[in-house]
Structures are given as structure tokens and as C-alpha cells.
Design goal:
Non-ribosomal Peptide Synthetase Peptidyl Carrier Protein, Chain A
Amino acid sequence: MDPFLIMQAMNIIAEETGITMAEMKNDVAFADVGVDSLLSLAVCGRLREELNMPDLSSTLFMEYSTVADLKRWLGATSSSSGPVSDSSADDDSKPLAPESGFVFSFLRRGHSRDLQRRHHGC
């Protein structure tokens, strides 16, 4: 699972829907935060462009209707070993991307460019 990819995707969705990352809990249904067919096109366009996912389907939010569903799919997509079992996806009380921890401390140390190069090189 690539926590950086998941964090970037959730940031894009939060920006487009106008909700905060703290509100982006695993049990949140995208339809409940305003992701309709039109917004889905906009979000998917940004995900394709900014996360280098050119084959991303515009039906993404119909197929993966909650934050936990999308998180699992993104984890499986970014993993070379296939789907990933993530017990945190079942915990409705946790925000998806806490504002501390490995990813944020890693980025604060200036490694974001290395990660971006790695994602765009795949």
C-alpha cells in the first residue's frame, strides 16, 4: 500500500468536495459529500492528471462508494503484490490521513520530490 498515493487522492477529493481531511473518515459515502456524476468527472480528471493514472474510469465513485472502498482499491492498485488487507479501513472513527506520522514527517524532510518522481516514472 502506498500511503502517499492515498493521501494525495484524499486531498484532491477533499479540495473538490469542500470537506476537510478530518471529515474524510472511512465510513463517509462520496454521494453524501456531494460527489455526483459531474463532480466525479472533475475529481477523476484531477486524479488522472496529478497522480498519473491515465486509465482511471469516470465510474470510480460508483464502483468504490465510500472512503474505505476507495482506500482499499488505491492500496491494491499501488501494490505490486495485489490487494492489501487493511484493518484500519474498517475503523470508521479514524481520518484517512492524519496530520502526523510517517508520511508527513517524510515529506517535511524534503522527500516529496523523490516520491513524485517515483510515481510519475511508473
